[in-house]
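A further point concerns the way the authors explain their paired sequence and structure data. The central task, working out the structure tokens from the amino acid sequence alone, is never made concrete. I therefore recommend that a typical entry be quoted early in the introduction. An entry of this sort, consisting of the sequence and the corresponding backbone structure tokens, reads as follows:
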Amino acid sequence: MLPSPDSCLVFLGTAVLSAILTGATAWAARRFGFLARPVERSSHSAPTPQLGGVGICLALLAMLVFFPGALGLGPTVGGSSASLPFHSVRWAVTLLLAAGMALGLVDDVRHLGALKKLAGLALLAAVPLLFGLSLADAQAPGLGGEALGPWVGGALALAWALFFINAYNFMDGVNGQSGVFALNALAWWFVLAAVDGRDPAQSQEFARGMQMLYLALAGAVAGFLPWNFPRAATFMGDSGSLPLGAVLATLAVAGGARSLDAFVAYCLPLSVFVYDVLYTLVRRVRRRENLFTAHRSHLYQRLLIATGWSHARLLAFHLPLYLLTGAASALYYGASGRGGRLLVLTAVTLLLVAYTLLVLRFERRGKEETEHG
């Protein structure tokens, strides 16, 4: 199930629509003063339009709602996996985009307080559950092939979505970073869906529907990137990072709904962001910092400060991490036993630890250069 001419047209069509809409929203944001102004935690130095994510969301919404035929998504096309109808994924993504964009717009324009924003994110994270998207039917290793059940599986999916929406939002701080990260994950998920499509136990129609959805989302993100990288004419803003984080979290659940092993495989391309946020959270707790205050202590921010690199060079440094963790997802997915999967997870963990040590080394070098003037 490799890309076909039709699927390439879906990607290109959504990319063009997204590029046009992103340009329009950037113009509107500048015209009406909706600008991200530099503050202490910012990685930019000039006021910049911050509603670019609206173009991403509107482009994908247009394809999902008004042009489903272009995606090959009729009322029943897409089939189902062992327990998940494709139309549930489609409509969950549609509602997540609309609700997440609305919440993000309010925050971009009115700047919600931390608790109000957290409440809104909790409601957003619960949206997939309304469409039956959870890990309730996922088989867990060590439970004799039994499913997690609705309470455990639903709670796990909700906690994961709430965490990753925040993680994606926190990590959207450097030109091109969130967009390239999302494109990498979608590309590897396309590969995993292709493997699913060859499995007699899985629905080829469901796998094909998921692939088309990945391509449409990738096109929407790709259309945004020229406006954001290497120099930012607009930022994604919360109106983009919140719905995109919610959609990526949900697609990981949809792809891995049948087993926890499959879910882990779909989460591995997201592991760099997940690790950075978890590491930073633990570090801030240990330092007894206020978790609700803005900061610049994520690993990528510390690396940018320590090196003085451009955003393009920082992204080039991170790109191998994205590619390797994505490749690990395919290796994990194809591993035939617990030993092979454990080996893959160990390799990813060592890779992320090595990344942390590199950041610390750059910080020490920068400090030494400053002291010796």
